[in-house]
Amino acid sequence: MVRILVRGLSKFFASRAVLEDVSLSVEPGETLVVLGPSGAGKSTLLRCVAGLSPFDAGEVQVNSWVLRPGAQGLSAGAALRQRVGFIFQDFGLFPHKRAWENVALAPRLVRKLEAETAREQALELLAKVGLAARAEAYPHQLSGGEKQRVAIARALAMAPAALLGDEITSSLDPELKWEVVETLLRLKGEGLTLLLVTHEVGLARQVADRVLLLVEGKVVEEGPTQTLLSRPRTPRGQQFLSRLLV
Ligand SMILES: Nc1ncnc2c1ncn2[C@@H]1O[C@H](COP(=O)(O)OP(=O)(O)OP(=O)(O)O)[C@@H](O)[C@H]1O
């Protein structure tokens, strides 16, 4: 079971703060959706939590892994990513590899699984995300929703106890979004800790236990999904949500 804690995280690009004193927690098995407009700092926040980007102040703690400011934090991030899966907005699949090969690659290289074991595991994971019949397809032969589900299966192949997802439904048509939401709901049911960032209120409403609003690099407010989305407490939260819901 994984708990994610972020305390007082700040990050600057040149002298401009893109994240300012951001704190959040995701309890084991909980789904937190960070909601915010374009440029709010959502991707940057997720990359800091995954140990993919250095930050300037604060601390990220994922169970016993602690990431601190500077480059040293990034080497701790490499160990952390063995237990935490990261799903990128653009899927990040290898175009010349079949769906199952994309899923089997990291277990082969990092966990040193035998080829046949890695293939069997990949086929099982593709079945779990509803893609058993598409295992032999190349990414260009898959729809956006299918590609995203292969990316989820690939993240699951490292047996993560938590998944971080960056705008994982934003590029999909409405009917394909549902395929991914269904997959997320299933994973949530299995007790995975999920931290998702998005500008889509619909995704937050469908999967989040709690929502955190991030605007211009600052936490505006956070709370249980239904309460926060229907009755934001702060003027900035009200302003942000009314703009999104128009
Ligand atoms: N490498 C970089 N160098 C300088 N500025 C950057 C860099 N990466 C991001 N930024 C800036 O940091 C701010 C936050 O960007 P970020 O991508 O985290 O926002 P976001 O909320 O994920 O936006 P979107 O929803 O549009 O992806 C933006 O103003 C962006 O221009």
TrEMBL record:
Domain of life: Bacteria
Transmembrane segments: none
GO molecular function ontology, one term from the record: ATP hydrolysis activity
The UniProt record lists the keyword DNA-binding: no
UniProt keywords, alphabetically: ATP-binding, Nucleotide-binding, Transport
Limits of the ABC transporter domain: 4-241
Family matches, as PROSITE patterns: ABC_TRANSPORTER_1, ABC_TRANSPORTER_2
InterPro entries: AAA+_ATPase, ABC_ATPase_HisP-typ, ABC_transporter-like_ATP-bd, ABC_transporter-like_CS, MetN_ABC_transporter-like, P-loop_NTPase
PANTHER family: AMINO ACID IMPORT ATP-BINDING PROTEIN, PHOSPHONATES IMPORT ATP-BINDING PROTEIN PHNC
Family: Belongs to the ABC transporter superfamily.
Name of the protein in question: ABC transporter domain-containing protein
Organism: Thermoanaerobaculum aquaticum
